[in-house]
Amino acid sequence: MFSNIETVTLNEASQIIEALLPVSNKPIFLHGPFGIGKSAIIKALVGRLAETTGQKWGLIEIRASQIDSTDTRGIPDTQDRRTFFATPDWLPRVERDGEFGIVFLDELLLGSESTQRALYQFLEGLLGDYELPIGWRIIAASNRPCDGAGVRGRHDAALMTRFETQLNVTADPDEWKEYAVRAPVDHRVSEFRKKLGLDELPEGFHPFVVAFMDWKGKPTLKGDGTIDQAGLLLEYPNGGIPKGHTAAAQPRGWHSVSNILYSNLSHRLQHVAIAGAVGVGPAATFTGFLQILNNLPDANLILRNPDDADVPSENELGTRYAIATTLAQRVTSKNIDNAVRYIKRMHEELLSVFFLIATNRDPNLQATKAYIDFKIETQSTVI
Q: What is the dihedral sign for C-alpha 45, 48, 50, 52?
């Protein structure tokens, strides 16, 4: 964690990058924990820029931890008794890669000292005789020393001063849920399932994961507003993963949990796999949530008789989230008013995750009066 730069969410970081691209050709640096989606926002940004500008935007991703100084400078060669460095093939060229694009230098601080020094000149858009095309920009990212990712505090001032700005990025549960319900299925997974004759997986993360994050994703706060306990979307926001731990709760791990739920594993092996994705503690809490889901009252009875159906007590918050999730998966335009009436009896805050899951499953529900009234009442920007 760095005390002299500001912390922003991934969406805020994306907005800052997009606003700076037309006014500066200096690179931007993103510091942040592993697995939160730093590379994902760059990919999404490239797609958005292509839509808004009507131009093709390229993306070249380079991991500094996997290259050496030769990959950066190029291999020395001779011609006409002169020595020169052959330009590396990964550098963008307009004729091959297009007029506009982003070079994303990931894991920059994991690169060796010689690799980082070799990149000094490139961060200024130059490399020997090579010059970065006018329409291309450089974004760099890396984990922090406190993340236990092998950075080891290498923060050369000469390197850091080459950036237009530095941002410490973190995962925000509300932003994550918005992304999670619409996340596309990896095309390689889709192709693999197609070759096996299996049905396509639905778009978005498993709704049980989305609902669980709405319940347990955010940190709990003390009376003075400081964090009492980190949320389970990002278990260690300030680094410091305990020695000997190889898994911790973070957005990339919850994506894995979603994939695991779509598998046909037994309950015991499912728990084992989930623990391997997010750690034993978060896995136990999530598995407890799944057990609640398996012992819920009949959703159809609730939808038929929302005013008389039993409501879980305030102490049974997990059960309330589970019921809201189940109703979101069953609701139709004909019974949505009943679902909303029942959820309001539990707690109106549950309507946010209910509508998020329900309208993603059936976009036609956005035309219902219940949904329109909800948006007007809350002025929600989540959905």
A: negative
Q: What is the per-residue pLDDT across 221-248, written as a single tens digit (0 to 9) for each?
A: 666 666 657 789 998 887 767 777 888 8
Torsion angle, alpha carbons of 243, 247, 249, 253, to 10? 160
Q: Give the whole-angstrom CA distance, residue 340 versus residue 194.
A: 38
Domain residue limits, the chain: 7-170, 175-378
Tally the residues of the chain: 383
Cβ contacts of 31 within 8 Å, gap of 6 or more: 2, 5, 141, 142, 143, 144, 166, 167, 168, 169
Cβ-based neighbour number of residue 193 at 10 Å: 14
Rounded to 5, what percent of the chain is helix, strand, coil? Answer: 45, 15, 40
Look at the alpha carbons of 348, 350, 356, 361 in this order and tell me if their dihedral is positive or negative: negative
Q: Are 108 and 143 in contact (CB under 8 A)?
A: no
The tens digit of pLDDT for each residue in 55-109 reads: 999 999 998 887 777 667 666 666 666 666 667 888 899 999 999 999 999 988 8
The DSSP 8-state label assigned to residue 217 in this structure reads: S
Q: Please name the fold of domain 7-170.
A: Rossmann fold (3.40.50)
Would you say 55 and 270 are in contact if contact means Cβ atoms under 8 Å apart?
no
